[in-house]
Amino acid sequence: MTSNPLLLKFAALAASLCVAGATLAQAPAQAARCNDCGTVKSIRYIEEQGQASGLGAVAGGVVGGVIGHQFGSGRGNTVATVAGAAGGAYAGHQVEKSTKKKAYWSVAIRMDGGNTRTFTYTDKPGVQEGEQVKLVDGGKRLALVAH
Q1: Which of the four CATH numbers 1.10.8, 2.40.50, 3.30.70, 2.60.40 does domain 34-49+101-147 have?
Q2: What CA–CA distance (Å, rounded) separates 114 from 102?
């Protein structure tokens, strides 16, 4: 049996068109991948206690000492002044820490590319764990993705 050169060229052309067609069919699937999309893995509300500088304790101690000095006489006055200063210092310290408290929402997203990114928000995000989302404005906002 002899091979026909024209038939061989036709077979090679048909095979290359099949390979090219398969490659073109895969291209839209790869182009549809979203680099800013992922799945919400966790949503946590976090409160961080504020750091006190000592100013609250000093101010509270002075105010407490002045108020404590108004009570008693002699040794009783001294005890009331010291107790007032100590109580005021503790109260002032706690008030300062409370006013400097930080609270925020932490959202971990498993990106479609495989990595995990974490974003923080002052308000509760409008998404739930397990939902598909797209980052908007670099992650400043999250949008639900319909699948």
Answers
A1: 2.40.50
A2: 31
SS3 139: helix
- Supply the mean pLDDT for the chain: 77
Reading the block at residue 72, the tokens are: 């008693």
The Cα 55–Cα 47 span in angstroms is 22
Does the pTM exceed 0.90? no
Question: HSE on the CB side for 48, CA within 13 Å?
Answer: 9
Where would I find the beta strands (DSSP E) of 35-140? 37-48, 102-111, 116-121, 132-136
Q: Cite the beta strand spans of 19-87 per DSSP E.
A: 37-48
Residues 93, 45: Cα–Cα separation, whole Å: 25
